[in-house]
Amino acid sequence: MIKNIVFDMGNVLVAYDGRKVCKHYIKDKKDRKRVFTAIFQSPEWVYLDMGMIPEEQAVDQMCARLPKRLHEAARLCMRDWHLYNMKPIKAMIPVIQDLKARGFKLYICSNASLRLPMCYQELLPEVDSFDGILFSAEEKLLKPQKEIYERLFEKFNIKPEESYFIDDLQLNIDGAAACGMKGYCFADGNVEKLQKALESLNKDS
């Protein structure tokens, strides 16, 4: 019997595109790509999600890979990325409302830097419907490490076999499955297909 639905945040509840803030601040396409790569495809970005590095240090290291003329733009992109790159996926609102009406407990388990606890309430659809939120940087863990799922179960006192995980990356679904939590890969972003999968939960119980 599934009692808990666990959501990833990025590209499940919130649309995420790291190119948007770069497009806002940088006109030249080649420069835009260089800054995007230096920030959003950097090891420092992963370290931020793991809570292993202060943001100021991360920005300094990102800028070190760029010509000096792009440092100011890179710092602006890093300062404001959460304002441009993330938008609520409004199609998920009825999904969340339906799950809540059916009596499921709802949780979030997301790879996210310490920036997110300061702004997630403005980004999440139906934010008050969630019973608990776990951000990777606060735990110094990262999906698909087994430890982050174990921490999720421990923190919210839920059982893996009673929980169902929705993530846009199969690697993270596989990591959850290895810990006993079945799930659904939302890589295609098809809300209708997801809703049908969720409607079938517990029908054979």
From TrEMBL:
SUPFAM superfamilies associated with the record: HAD-like
Record PANTHER family: ALPHA-D-GLUCOSE 1-PHOSPHATE PHOSPHATASE (PTHR43611), FLAVIN MONONUCLEOTIDE HYDROLASE 1, CHLOROPLATIC (PTHR43611:SF3)
Transmembrane segments: none
InterPro entries, per the entry: HAD-like_sf (IPR036412), HAD-SF_hydro_IA (IPR006439), HAD_sf (IPR023214), PGP-like_dom2 (IPR023198)
Pfam families linked: Hydrolase
Organism for this UniProt entry: Coprococcus catus
CDD domains noted in UniProt: HAD_sEH-N_like
Protein name (Swiss-Prot/TrEMBL): HAD family phosphatase
